[in-house]
Amino acid sequence: MIDIDKKVPDMDLLKESILRLKQEKDAIILAHNYQTADVQDIADFTGDSLELARKAATLDNEIIVFCGVDFMAETAAVLSPEKTVLLPAPDANCPMADMITAGELRVLKERFPEAAVVCYVNTSAEVKAESDVCCTSANAVQVVRSLKEEDILFVPDRNLGRYVARFTDKRILPWEGFCFVHDRITPADVLQARRDHPGAEVLVHPECRPEVIDLADHVFSTSGMIRHVCSTDSREFIIGTEVGILHRMKRDCPGKLCYPLSSGAVCVTMKKTDLSKVHRSLETLKPRVTVPDDIAEGARLAIRRMLDIR
């Protein structure tokens, strides 16, 4: 047993202990692309919100350790209520998810009773339970196109909603929420990055502002960015999303040069998970994330509808 409360724990011993506990307890570690490098490196699976949701729905392991933010662990708990879902950093919340409540959404639905409700996966289980279908940045356009309704209440990300509106004739009614990491990227950042790295492709996330998207070469979810960087013949890329993804790009796409569009694109809550917290969570099987049955039932339906769209 190692002392994880030391100020400077032995990282090699810590990793070894995590791997041992994981095997002993039939646990699997899922990590988002924005997690720190050392957390990504001990994960069994790293991905974006859609990839992680699909993975959580198919796992046989008894314990899921979710290295991400709160709504991601909630989604796993909704999809696998019989499993133990752990969130090593219980204070790792998503500020955008907190920008809309189930009560606010109910009021919105009363104002637009004919509209379908599409909620970004970056929402609480309560909001998902009030929605018709979930989406992620990777499949938002596809989800909206699949609906028969002409009016779409899109919550909570205004930028993603406006991006989706570019690719559909439906009337998108976006909630005024946003991701603070992507929303603060500016056109000036793009122009400066192009000056610093002439010839590099600019890839941005659809959570960015419209005027930033207009200046980009491509718009992708994080998984889409990784696939593009690894598969294209281009060698240099300016990456317009949270800087944690650069570690995975370096690992998965050797020989490619990837630069952050903004060095300030850091999600502080995504960085709250560390190896000591993962270790403690595996040791104690806490903090556990659960969702009340009445809320989980509605949320599960919205998530499953998303996962069924191919």
Which descriptors would you attach to this protein?
310 residues; alpha/beta; four-stranded parallel sheet; 15 helices; 12 strands; 42% helix
List the helices and strands and how they pair.
Elements: H1 11-24, E1 27-32, H2 37-42, E2 45-47, H3 49-58, E3 63-67, H4 70-79, E4 84-86, H5 102-111, E5 116-120, H6 125-129, E6 133-135, H7 140-145, E7 151-155, H8 158-165, E8 171-174, H9 180-183, H10 187-196, E9 201-204, H11 210-213, E10 218-219, H12 222-231, E11 236-240, H13 245-252, E12 257-260, H14 275-284, H15 293-307
Parallel strand pairs: 1-2, 1-3, 3-4, 5-6, 5-7, 7-8, 9-10, 9-11, 11-12
Helix pairs in contact: 1-14, 3-4, 4-15, 12-13
Q: Could you tell me the radius of gyration in angstroms? A: 19 Å
In oligomeric terms, what are we looking at? single chain
Strand proportion, as a percent range, falls in: 15-25%
Secondary structure class reads alpha/beta
Q: Numbering strands along the chain, what is their spatial order in the largest sheet?
A: 2-1-3-4
Separate helix tally: 15
Order of helices and strands: HEHEHEHEHEHEHEHEHHEHEHEHEHH
The coarse silhouette is globular
Largest sheet: 4 strands, parallel
Low-confidence stretches: none
Distance between the termini: 46 Å
Name the helicity range: 40-55%
Could you report the average pLDDT, rounded to the nearest whole number?
94
How many beta strands in the DSSP annotation? 12
